[in-house]
Amino acid sequence: MSKKIPLLIDTDPGVDDALALLMAFADERHEVVGLTVAAGNVGLDHTVRNALKLCEVAGREDVPVFAGTPDPLVHPAEDAAHVHGRDGFGDVDLPAAARAAEAEHAALAILRLSHQYAGELVLVALAPLSNIALALKLDPTLPQRVKRMLVMGGAVTGHGNITPVAEFNIAFDPEAAHIVFTGFPHIEVADWEATVAHGLLHRDVEQWLAADTGKARFYELISRQTRLWSEDSRGERWYAADALAMAWALQPEGATRLERRPLSVELAGTHTRGATVVDWNRQTGAPDNTTLLLGYEQARFEAQVRRALGLPA
Ligand code: BDR
Ligand code: CA
Prior knowledge:
There is one protein chain. By secondary structure, the protein is α/β, with parallel strands linked by helices. It has helices at 15-26, 44-57, 81-84, 106-116, 130-138, 142-145, 168-172, 174-183, 192-197, 202-209, 214-234, 241-250, 298-308; strands at residues 5-11, 30-37, 65-67, 121-125, 146-152, 187-190, 200-201, 237-238, 255-261, 263-265, 276-278, 290-296. It has one domain (5-308): Inosine-uridine Nucleoside N-ribohydrolase, Chain A (Alpha-Beta Complex). The protein has an eight-stranded mixed sheet with strand order 3-2-1-4-5-6-12-9, sandwiched between helices. It has a two-stranded antiparallel sheet with strand order 7-8. A two-stranded antiparallel ribbon has the order 10-11. Helix 2 links the parallel strand 2 and strand 3 (65-67). It is globular. The protein starts with a strand and ends in a 5-residue tail after the last helix. The protein binds beta-D-ribofuranose and calcium ion.
């Protein structure tokens, strides 16, 4: 079999992060070489604990887990416990995993792994960008060793989820996002609006989660609270942002519509802090520093989700 593509995931599990991680573990073409963990959906102690638990449930205790920074770089921010539960995994009192996180800091692990897999590494960010920004500040040559940098974040026409114009991962730590979007020459962006365009029908998800597999049972349990909240507040489709981003990372051939454009992050603004400003008409003369995901094959996305849960695709 040909060599697998090394995949490093920065994550803040988080219910949709958990699904994305299961998708990555289930993929035959990629090898997850580490999870670097950020604060975001809930505090760092919970997101680290959840990452370790998820690895255990997936039988992937071989994947090292690195804890990152507990706070946004500059300004404090509010978590998303109202969506993911106070513990980030639906408040179902899971016993802690047997294993602890590695001693190495996430930002240092990102740099070390970028050397180990120089020129091949795919870096997928499913969380606020605090760890990756720190890594970039420590070593601005990081992008030279990363083959693909993919971010779940932003709202490319200003239809946000945490404020009217901003998406959670960017709004939680806009300074970090600014550092990352100016430090990497090119970033693939799966934003919140793409997520909304690729919602999963609750009735389908419920059917998949009724399957008799360990992963489906676990995922049914930890996602129950957030799916109920979502159905109540957003209607018949569930928006699994990190899962869509991961589908694109793992199977880029499933993209049906992509646009390259300059993107910058708003740091100030009375109503717009954390917005991702896309220069759709290329008025600024800035280089196209992003590829934006606008369409992805829905059937391919859903097949990846089913496979991650242990069902036939
Ligand atoms: C993003 O924010 C988090 O709440 C999710 O895990 C996802 O990464 C969606 O806006
Ligand atoms: Ca996330």
